[in-house]
Amino acid sequence: MTLYAKFINENQIKYAPTNKGSIFNYDLDIEAMTNDGYKPVIQAERPDNDRNYFITYAESNENITEIITYLETEKEYQNRKNNENIQLDIDLLNSQIRDIDLKRIRAICEPSIKDETTGETWLHYYNSQILDLRNQIQILQERITPNDITQQNLSPLDSRES
Fold this sequence. Notes:
Elements (H helix, E strand, L loop, with lengths): L3 E6 L2 E4 L14 H6 L3 E4 L10 E7 L4 E7 L3 H36 L3 E3 L4 E2 H22 L4 H4 L11
Parallel strand pairs: 3-5
Antiparallel strand pairs: 1-2, 1-3, 4-5, 6-7
Helix pairs in contact: 2-3
């Protein structure tokens, strides 16, 4: 179904109402909408991902066209998605650390041997598991791509010669 609207400015349009006064289904009466200054809106195809964008409008004699402008490049989008996935992995590892930490508290209160042959205690075992998880988190954090603004060579705030 084609939508009709009035052009207000490049950032705003006013869609035709469904009902106008005593006229029901006004938005289906193309002749009435056209006579009142409404024009068909050519809608831009929305991206199928969650890439950030905004919509502006352009008016011609016959219609109003939506224009999609992306707020980030494809590379920035891919970096953001990659960073989000890495952060999910980090959150999962932190959750595992919290779970093991509860066991570690119990191991402090009730010291016992986990492995009779090596003499390893539960506390030592849990400490080594947490250390491994923290090492995994460190590796993941190194894979996070910084935002472009942090990669720019910005001059220091205080540029006085010392």
